[in-house]
């Protein structure tokens, strides 16, 4: 498998809370190595460890401020290409530190020294943005990683800008058109909807760059009649149409493509005589159209696979309701009575689930690492057991890596015992 610059190989932290160490390794980017699960009793600093990793991958003045307050002595993040981010403290486990980053093996390391006094006052962000050493350091970190998606245990806390909603159900319009309360899950679903739509449009754009279908029809028609026999033309058409219907129907389910014309063509060919001489001309004229449709299906297949994985993963958990997606209407949540449901009307567990799976699929396009603290919150036992495998499935196209901390035995059952990370402490 090709090594990418953003692929993490290991994460190590020492002196967390002044005494605990965490060592996390990602030997490959294939399942199940993309998922690493931390188990530790309360008071072992696992949340501090997760926060430190997230802040270290986000080179901003605010993240430096966070790192000052997180108690640890040393943190290193090693990348598959030889790149390295390290944060070190000489004495205390909070306060000042030195951070460095190199983008590859034998590459120059760019360092900054961070003192709490330099991050106080209202102007500190502007001052840091003008520092040459911080600019070099942040550029190096940005080359290694665009940052992680951090999903904390407060993930469903109300947003400051949330609007009061006076109704949880709208029977005529999709929730996207009639939303009255923009909660965190609603906004996240909007983002997923945009991503899935853009994936489909990208596939269509790629296919449209190919030779135009009408130009192909013109060329094949001018080249003259096809020398094949009528029976051969019929067999070739039937074989290609069968393949198109098999591959195209899953795309039709999400409104990415219409196969109606192909069904009509199939019916007409089926109704024609076996040796109808006009089948040769039909084959000549239709072949460019069918070939073009084949290319279109190929171009749209990655988008269809991503959409199908997300939709089926969500619906694997939901009961008496389902999530639907079409290119024309976007994402909708539908009750068993057929009426649209507002995302914020769902149970706490359902909203937690939607948030986690949505972030997993979004990570395929923007972030190579997802950090989750206590994924089991509000989830029933069966959902806890199935969650991590479904998050891996949703994120497979982007080979996203996960760093998860959990207290749940059900969540841990999804991971091999030898792959569970536990903190160590000095003997």
From TrEMBL:
Domain annotation ATPase AAA-type core: ranges: 291-413
Gene Ontology molecular function terms on file: ATP binding; ATP hydrolysis activity
Pfam families per record: AAA_21
Source organism superkingdom: Bacteria
InterPro entries recorded: ATPase_AAA_core, Bact_Antivir_Def_Nuclease, P-loop_NTPase
Name by which UniProt lists this protein: AAA domain-containing protein, putative AbiEii toxin, Type IV TA system
Source species: Crystallibacter crystallopoietes
């Amino acid at each position: 498998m090709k090594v990418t610059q953003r692929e993490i190989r290991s994460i190590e932290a020492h002196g967390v809370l002044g005494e605990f160490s965490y060592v996390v390794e990602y030997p490959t980017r294939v399942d199940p190595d993309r998922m690493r699960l931390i188990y530790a009793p309360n008071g072992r600093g696992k949340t501090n460890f997760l926060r430190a990793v997230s802040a270290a991958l986000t080179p901003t003045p605010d993240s430096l401020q966070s790192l000052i307050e997180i108690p640890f002595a040393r943190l290193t993040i090693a990348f598959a290409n030889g790149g390295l981010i390290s944060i070190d403290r000489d004495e205390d486990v909070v306060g000042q530190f030195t951070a460095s980053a190199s983008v590859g093996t034998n590459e120059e390391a760019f360092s900054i020294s961070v003192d709490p006094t330099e991050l106080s006052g209202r102007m500190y962000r502007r001052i840091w943005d003008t520092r040459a050493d911080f600019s070099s350091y942040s550029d190096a970190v940005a080359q290694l990683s665009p940052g992680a998606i951090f999903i904390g245990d407060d993930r469903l806390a109300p947003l400051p800008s949330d609007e009061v909603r006076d109704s949880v159900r709208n029977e005529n319009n999709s929730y996207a058109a009639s939303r009255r309360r923009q909660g965190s899950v609603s906004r996240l679903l909007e983002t997923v909807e945009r991503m899935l739509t853009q994936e489909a449009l990208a596939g269509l754009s790629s296919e449209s760059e190919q030779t135009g279908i009408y130009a192909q029809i013109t060329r094949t028609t001018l080249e003259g009649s096809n020398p094949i026999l009528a029976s051969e033309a019929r067999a070739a058409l039937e074989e290609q149409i069968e393949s198109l219907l098999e591959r195209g129907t899953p795309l039709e389910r999400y409104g990415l493509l219409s196969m109606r014309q192909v069904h009509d063509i199939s019916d007409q060919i089926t109704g024609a005589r076996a040796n109808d001489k006009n089948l040769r001309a039909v084959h000549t004229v239709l072949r460019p159209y069918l070939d073009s449709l084949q290319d279109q299906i190929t171009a749209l297949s990655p988008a269809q696979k991503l959409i199908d994985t997300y939709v089926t993963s969500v619906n694997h958990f939901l009961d008496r309701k389902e999530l639907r997606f079409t290119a024309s209407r976007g994402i909708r949540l539908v009750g068993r009575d057929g009426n649209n449901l507002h995302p914020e009307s769902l149970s706490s567990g359902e909203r937690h689930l939607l948030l986690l799976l949505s972030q997993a699929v979004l990570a395929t396009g923007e972030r190579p690492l997802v950090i989750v603290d206590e994924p089991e919150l509000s989830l029933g036992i069966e959902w806890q057991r199935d969650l991590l495998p479904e998050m891996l499935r949703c994120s497979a196209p982007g080979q996203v890596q996960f760093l998860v901390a959990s207290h749940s035995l059900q969540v841990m059952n999804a991971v091999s015992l030898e792959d569970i990370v536990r903190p160590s402490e000095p003997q």
